[in-house]
Amino acid sequence: MRGNITRRGKSSWRLKFDLDRDPVTGKRRTRFITVRGKRQDAQRELARLLTEASNGTLIDPSKITVAESICGWLDGAHGLSPKTLERYRQLVEQQIIPYLGRIELQKLRPAHVQDWHDKIMRGGGKNGRPLSARTVGHAHRVLHRALQRAVENETLPRNVASLIRPPKVESQEVEILSADEIGIVLAKLEDHALHPIATLALATGMRRGELLALRWGDVDLGGATMRVERALEETGAGFRFKAPKTKHGQRTVSLPKSAIEVLRAHRLKQLELRVALGQGKQELDALVFSTFEGAPLSPDNLSRDWRRAVIALDLPKVKFHALRHSHASALIASGLDVLTVSRRLGHGSPVITLSTYAHLFGKTDEKAADAIEAALRTTGEQ
Asked: N or C, where is the chain less crowded by C-beta within 10 Å?
């Protein structure tokens, strides 16, 4: 394959090189590329292009923009859950397209990605507010996934998002309730509608969506166990029940006696209400937590109601998800091993448990030192 370089201006060069013949027409194909910089830069670029053409890795030119490419990827992203796809579209429409959308995909450079990070960090939020490093990271990962698909489709030679790291997210300790605070919360919620679901969240560590998808058929009050099979997801299209992301999400959770008592009382109230409304016998697939008509409760509304209860009842100012963390904290404080904690929480790996609650495991290390000391003393006495 041959090529030549022609000067087009003070610091601009036109590269011309021949490719193989078109398999359909049989005509020889010629490619023209403009390069800015010194002649040595043009020579290096020509050498690279000729090498790629010879190896069969040269990408055909395309005028498709970042916006066109990423929207096309989203339209075909059937492997994503509806909720994830909805979130990705939101990030694309609000954080990516306004800043990078008009750039031709093949002209996107690492410098563009870095400049994009800087801009949305300063004012990419609503009404020009700064974005958190975590949100910027989420947007970066969406861009990376879209560009990677373009690489796989041979529209791009490389993924430039791989060359720029998203801003570092400062690690934050999870919100938890102390043992005393758990007692206070449950006491103040005793006659509140949130009391049963808050009790079960603290007793099992189940996620919000898992609690709202729970059926009475999943609960064995006599055996003091509960089967977690699915979770409730809410999107713009409505509600849907989905299976856990991993096999570890499906699990059987043992129930403490106090939680069983609360569930029995909750079920009795539901049955009494059904009789009053003339709804008849309760089926096994009836939801444990639902509207009066038996329909699913909105996960977002549950969080909203929790926030209102926190203010109205002067509860510790934590999110509903903190009840799950508080459950994990209680297990760790009791000295339970990380594998058991991980399985009960439905984590895909104990590594996730350790990374989330590392600071809590650190507080139990003194017990480990005491155990080793006892073993060493025993050894020395022999």
From this structure: C
Please say whether the dihedral angle defined by the alpha carbons of residues 67, 69, 75 and 78, taken in this order, is positive or negative.
negative
The span from the CA of 28 to the CA of 24, in Å, is 11
Q: What pLDDT does residue 319 have?
A: 96
The terminus-to-terminus CA distance of the chain in angstroms comes to: 82
Contacts of residue 156, defined as CB under 8 A and 6 or more positions apart, other chains included, come to 59, 105, 106, 147, 150
Specify the pLDDT at position 378.
Answer: 56
The domain limits of the chain are 3-55, 84-162, 179-320
Could you say which residues of the chain have pLDDT below 70? 1, 22-24, 57, 362-382
Q: What is the pLDDT of residue 1?
A: 57
Spell out the residues 6+ positions from residue 277 whose beta carbon is closer than 8 angstroms to its own.
292
What are the tokens at 159?
Answer: 């993924």
154 is written with which tokens? 């041979």
Those residues whose C-beta lies under 8 Å from the C-beta of residue 251, and which sit 6 or more positions away, are 227, 228, 343, 344, 346
Q: 179-320 adopts what CATH topology? A: hpI Integrase; Chain A (1.10.443)
Q: Are 262 and 198 in contact (CB under 8 A)?
A: no
| Cα 30 from Cα 16, distance rounded (Å) | 7
Reported in sequence order, the residue ranges of 99-257 that DSSP labels E, i.e. its strands, are 219-220, 225-228, 231-235, 238-242, 251-254
Tokens 């990419």 belong to residue: 124
- Helical axes 338-345 vs 350-363, angle rounded to 10°: 120
CATH topology of domain 84-162: DNA polymerase; domain 1 (1.10.150)
What was the pLDDT predicted at 366? 55
Question: For residue 169, what pLDDT is reported?
Answer: 85
Is the pTM higher than 0.85? The answer reads: no
Q: What is the 3-state secondary structure (H, E, C) of 301-353?
A: HHHHHHHHHHHHCCCCCCCCCHHHHHHHHHHHHCCCCHHHHHHHHCCCCHHHH
The two most distant CA atoms of the chain are separated, in Å, by: 91
